[in-house]
Structure formats: C-alpha cells, structure tokens
Amino acid sequence: xxxVEQHPSTLSVQExxxxxxxxxxxxSASNYFPWYKQELGxxxxxxxxxxxxxxxxxxxxxxVTLNKTAKHFSLHITETQPxxxxxxxxxxxxxSGNQFYFGTGTSLTVIP
Amino acid sequence: DAGVIQSPRHEVTEMGQEVTLRCKPISxxxxxxxxxxxxxxxxxxxxxxxxxxxIDDSGMPEDRFSAKMPNASFSxxxxQPSEPxxxxxxxxxxxxxAGxxxxxxFGPGTRLTxx
Lengths: 112, 115
What we know:
The complex is a heterodimer. Chain A has no helices and eleven strands. Chain A is mostly beta strands. In chain A, about 0% of the residues lie in helices and about 60% in strands. The model of chain A has no long low-confidence stretch (mean pLDDT about 95). By secondary structure, chain B is mostly beta strands. In chain B, a hairpin with an 8-residue loop joins strand 9 and strand 10. At the A-B interface, strand 4 and strand 5 of A face strand 5 of B.
C-alpha cells in the first residue's frame, strides 16, 4: 500500500512568518492529496487539496505544491496567525483505491 | 446536512467492560471509515465500509474489536472486553464515491477512556 511520510512533527514560528510542512509518498499511482487541519479537541477538517494534474494551488494564505517526479508535496502558510496553531495532516489517495493514507501529523505553534 | 454524527462524545468505562461507539454518516455517502487517534500512533485507519460492506479491516488491532454497518445510515464499533490501552479518540468519517476527488468528512469523535 501507499506510505506517506510527513515532516517536521513539530514546528514553531513567530506570528507573521511562513510555515512549510512537507510530505512524501511512495506510490506513483496516487493522484489526490488533501490537507487537513485539526484544532485542539476538534475533528480534522479539509483546508486545501491538490490533484495530480496540477503543480500548485493557492487559497489566500495557504498554498500547496506537488512534485510528481519526486513524489512530494508541501503545505505553505504565509503571514501566520495564532489561529493557525493546530495539527496538520497530509494524505494521499490512489486512483484505484478507496482510502486516504495519512501522514503522522505536524503540530504547528504560532507564537504571538 | 448535519454532517457525520457520532455518539457518545465521551465515554469512560472500566477495564473489561463492553464499549459501543456509534456513527451516522452523511446521507448519500458510499464509504464509511473508522479511525483511532492517539498521541503515540497518530491517526490509524481501523476499518472501512463501502455500501455497508466491510472492505478492509486490516487495521483492527485485535479480535476484541468489531464493526458493523447494518444499513447506510448507521455503523457501530464495539470493543469487548475493553482495556486501558484502548483509550483514544475514535473518529468516524464518510465520503461519497461519485467523482474521484471527493472530500472525506470526519465526525466530532468519541473520546474513550478505559480505567
């Protein structure tokens, strides 16, 4: 099956700085890569996703990039704010499969 | 739509007791997933169903765990007998198959504490 690795496991940034979280996947058949944000005590919620036919997608302060050749994708958060503090999970989905393969999560802390 | 509904939200029980977690997926969703989340192991997929049929239960840790989906609007995850190491947050999630790039929606989770 697919194997998704996520780094770093923890990340602290000053408010206003950028944060980058990186994930790699093993199966070249993966074609859909969602990112979930989980605030403390809450459920994971989708914040952005990217399909394999796209190299980059942006939504306000959040962007995701995908490098299919290298099999890695990244989440970029610019102008970070305290409310961005949460655990972020990347995931990969294989065209022929039915489940999402999740990374181990990154705990982001934005220091005011 | 109310989203994925889980009950109870919190459960505290004693070791050896039976625990039943419940989930109502979003109407029209073909897939239902059960996850367990702990600090040590992160988010683990336990089992998932397609059209009420269990497809992959390889993540179910032991025979003490069982899951059913008697109809499209209800699923249960049962632990019998429960052990302290089962303490975790259990999430149910659902997803619609039509279209390849569909979001998976999580329920609010059930926080289980086994004493």
